[in-house]
Amino acid sequence: MVSREHCPCGQPESFANCCEAVQKQGAQHVEALMRSRYSAYVLGQIDYLIATTLPAQQSGLDRDAMQQWSQSSQWLGLDVLGSAQQDSSPARGWVRFNVRWQDAEGHQLAHEELSHFVRGGDQRWYFIDPTVRLKADRNGACPCGSGRKVKKCCGPYLG
Ligand SMILES: [Zn+2]
Ligand SMILES: [Zn+2]
């Protein structure tokens, strides 16, 4: 169980001083964004999960499925295994993490993932969801808003 004295993401700080502050002020680092998204799953903040996904992908997200997964799971913990970001154009970052949860049938599950993030023209970091297919022309403008071609920009991280 997640202790209420600690942030749901596992940091010793309170939620208000950890992921809630990130949710309100925006993340400076992709690891903070990833942690705040995990806390959003724990707390059922589906709007935040959608808002922090690449804007061009947001309409392709299945809100009901996200809500269902968020609520039917008992979240057991998050371990961040590594992260980095670079001030390229556009700025990119990645986080490798392991998440543990118990499903509605009582099975304990774990999932390790390498998530990719890109900083949009509004200077906010966004999660690139590899499960959301974009009908993007590979030679067209990248949906992250960088002005570069998809194939030379976020193409490798898109579904
Ligand atoms: Zn946190
Ligand atoms: Zn891009």
Structure description:
The protein contains four helices and four strands. It is of the alpha+beta class and 159 residues long. The protein has a four-stranded antiparallel sheet, with helices on one face. It has a single domain, classed as Nuclear Transport Factor 2, Chain: A (Roll), CATH 3.10.450.50. The model has no long low-confidence stretch (mean pLDDT 93). The radius of gyration is 16 Å and the shape is globular. Bound molecules: zinc ion (2 copies). One zinc ion (ZN) is lined by residues 90, 118, 142, 144, 146, 153-154. Residues 90, 118, 142, 144, 146, 153-154 line the site of one zinc ion. It comes from Atopomonas hussainii. This is SEC-C motif-containing protein. InterPro entries: NTF2-like_dom_sf (IPR032710), SEC_C_motif (IPR004027), YchJ-like_M (IPR048469). Residues 31-129 form the YchJ-like middle NTF2-like domain.
